[in-house]
Amino acid sequence: MNITVIVCTYNRCHSLAKTLDNIAAQIVPEPFKWEVLVVDNNSSDRTHELVESFCSRDPARFRLVSEPEQGLSHARNTGIRNARGKILVFTDDDIGVESDWLWNLTSSLHSGEWAGAGGQIMPVCLGTLPNWLPIDDFRTLGVFAGFYLGATAGPLTRPPYGGNMAYLKETFEKHGGFRVDLGRTGTNLQGREEVEFANRLLARGEKLRYEPTAVVRHSVPECRMSKSYVRKWYYWSGRSEVADLGPPTDASWKLGGVPLYMFRRLARWTLQWMVSIGAPRRFTCERTVCYLAGTTLACYQHSRSQVGQVAPPSTGLR
User: Fold this and answer.
1) How confident is the model at residue 136 (pLDDT cuts 50, 70, 90)?
2) 158 neighbors 199 (Cβ within 8 angstroms)
3) Inside any domain, residue 316
4) What pTM value is reported for the model?
5) Could you give the C-alpha distances from 198 to 8, 62, 76, 109, in angstroms and in order?
6) Residue 28: which of 55, 4, 52, 63 has the closest Cα?
């Protein structure tokens, strides 16, 4: 088997059906063989029955495994262990792709020159963008899992996003899997598991490739364009960064494990939020306050949890 597409899912049977239909229509040239492995992470809707229908329709193409431990990293690591392909492709359960997506993403990996690849992720908003959301700011793309580095293929110097990435299976055997202390669990928005993994590879000299013709359309429901969701996303972004990289090390003075300059930044951005004119500018300040609040709390919790703790985060594939 040359390629395994791994789709981890949790209670999204309606969007999953369209995703699997899109993946089933992929055109991969002979003699390359490929499969789709769906990892059900404790779904309580009709996900199991839906995937079983695809497996019955095309048993040579589709397989289903379950991962009882809640969390995206647990599900992805289960997919890695059960995959038969030499190249492992990861995507989300709410995406749309053209029939050339899979080959465009993976064709450069068969030579062994590259350890992995990432493609373009195009957010498709299922509603009208609110006027307070600054769409000309690249950081806005992160909220909607957007990823675009231009139209030219070449080496990646930053991590790809989890909705459109591929790695050689031997890369996981060599460097370990996704850290299970990172990644979404249930309804929280903690992330960076794919960012941490790619940064781990880049730090060890592995080469990653950007494939702009491998395009994924990622649905953005209207509920994700609410202030409450965006605030929550930035709050968890701050927490995730500390969980991944650890607290800042450039501070001489700390209070409860939090650098004192973090409190000054919080105060400054809160004041700017209160006095700024214009909805986009005000919300830019507000989301920065949410990010700093998440970072501050994570630094405090990290200092508390490190008392007597010596074990490093798990990156293995059990």
Assistant:
1) low
2) no
3) no
4) 0.91
5) 19, 27, 14, 15
6) 4
